[in-house]
């Protein structure tokens, strides 16, 4: 099932979250976004698909403190050859240094349609 996934490195154990169910439509343009505050392992990300918040499943609970991203690669698509590859196109990637509001995310989705 097509899903969004967020993987974040922590000192004790990494966090992995996925959008629930078939949240990303197949064979259609889709806008995906997630917001995440990594200051605490109890925080969960919020995933948005086409401007609407989606349910999130925690596949792996993080432990410890967040690892520095200074030496990590920022990856989009499949995480290595052993993971299901992304079969499609990814365009107009953005990274912000703050958490966007639901309204800002909806506006980004609407501007790309």
Task: Lay out the secondary structure.
Blueprint: E1 5-8, E2 15-19, E3 32-35, E4 46-49, E5 52-54, E6 56-60, H1 102-112
Task: Describe what you observe in this structure.
This protein is mainly beta and 113 residues long. It is 10% helix and 22% strand. It is built from one helix and six strands. It has one helix at 102-112; strands at 5-8, 15-19, 32-35, 46-49, 52-54, 56-60. The strands form two sheets. Strands 1-2-6 form a three-stranded antiparallel β-sheet, with no helix packed on it. A three-stranded antiparallel β-sheet has the order 3-4-5. The protein starts with a strand and ends with a helix. The model has no long low-confidence stretch (mean pLDDT 86).
Describe the main β-sheet briefly.
3 strands, antiparallel
C-alpha termini separation: 23 Å
Percent of residues in β-strands: 15-25%
The helix fraction, in percent, is under 10%
- Derived structural class: mainly beta
Q: List the strand order in the largest sheet.
A: 1-2-6
Q: What best-fitting shape do the alpha-carbon axes yield?
A: globular
Series of secondary-structure elements, N-terminal to C-terminal: EEEEEEH
Uncertain ranges: none
By DSSP (H or I, 4+ residues per run), the number of helices equals 1
Mean of pLDDT:
86
Total number of beta strands: 6
Radius of gyration: 14 Å
Question: Quick gist of this model?
Answer:
This protein has one helix spanning 102-112, and strands spanning 5-8, 15-19, 32-35, 46-49, 52-54, 56-60.
